[in-house]
Here is the input.
Amino acid sequence: MNQHASLDQLVDYIHGELAPADDAFVHAHLSECSECARAYDREVSLTARLREVAQAQERELPDSCVRAIRAAAQAPARPSLWHMPQLLRPLAAIPAALIVAAVLYVGLAHRGAAPAHAIDALSYVHHHTAVTAAAPFSDDTPIPAVLTAETTREDQSTDATP
Amino acid sequence: MRRRSVVAALALVVAPAILPAANESPAALIGQVVAAPSTVSYTGIVAAVRIGNQRSEASVYRVEHRAPDLTRRNYSAPAALMGDAMESKGDVVYAIDPKRRRIVETQNGALDDRVAYDNSYALLLQNYRLIAKPDETYVGRSVAVISLVNKYTGKATMLLRIDRQTKVVLDKQQFATDGSFVSEMHFEQFDSSAPPESDFALPKGYQVVQGPTYAPHAADPQMAARSAGFAAVEPKALAEGFAPVEGSLIELRGVRTLHVLYCDGIRTVSLFENTSSSALDTTGLTTTSATNVGGRSAEYAEDGATALLAWSDASLHYALVGELTQNELRRIAASISR
Here is the structure.
């Protein structure tokens, strides 16, 4: 398989949105192409960072504000003049967009700094697990890595971020 | 397949001599347990848990085993695995993912390595005292209870509850050298009737992906080391009772690597050696930390209950992987020198 996975394919693969044939291609390709495997890991890290930034932006509303919102929701409909501030809502999206752009920039800039031929420590672990499966009373892995290759890497990437 | 058929043949020859049931010696019972999968079919619900320092894993699955070598696990927990299945036929393992409509087919030569299996079994009998405890009733069945105590540490390493009728292990608990609980696999339901062969048919219309091939040419460790193409180094000190049971030359992401598996009958540790001078990518592992081995900087990481220690000297890169503590790994690592 000489053809590399495209960035779009990797992103869709992470989210499980590829057609089965493309999904199978990417899965097989990642196991034998260290360049694409690193690109995949970077995308997973980037997704996790974006999620973290989004979570960090979430704030608890003050109780007084929550009470006001509840009261407003229970109150009878206001005249249409009250809907004017909606026109200003797109302005609120600007800081969020700037944050996302900054994270994307940092993530993409980081791509160029990755080591050229890093050894994948997980491949050592997977090989050990597979080979020891044959020993008497071997301890079966409760969660086979092959079934969670996509989800666990994404989850752990979130955990590992300081 | 070969291994299982040989074990099955042994069981047929040995079984009449080691019956009758309740008074058999623990060693004879363990022999029958080892041979049971070749001759006994069953179904059940299994819960499995492995406890790591930073991260633990647990799952629940329905298991169907049809002797001699068909086994299928259908997962119901955790949620990420709901509906997924693992199926093995001899030394071929299929990972079935209905969400992605994908089957990953993996070949594992180790499952067919009779020499390594027999060596591990011999080490188990050599390094562990088998202590029979009073029979119990477990999931409604009469079970023999056997504790496997390490002869060197005097600590119980494993506890087995064995179905008296079928010799299938219904509960297996493993403990670390400090006595802490490491893992458990236990049946919540057990039925000794054979599942129909149709249950093992692979789903149609799925994309089949060739996964990695493990230990394709498993051999004697000395022989594998001699053909490595570089001057491999072996540890001068292992934990007591450990011995090399299998060696092979493998390609890990294009890097020719010597792998030697050491075992004491229950616990295992792998040594990987190659000439790569690349950095170690620990993505996906937890608790990564810097440490040292004999004055050289090293990296320690964990994947659940499995630990990894990696370092390099002037000419080789090394990695030790196993269910040992960091100190145990460091002691082995310190003994790997020219």
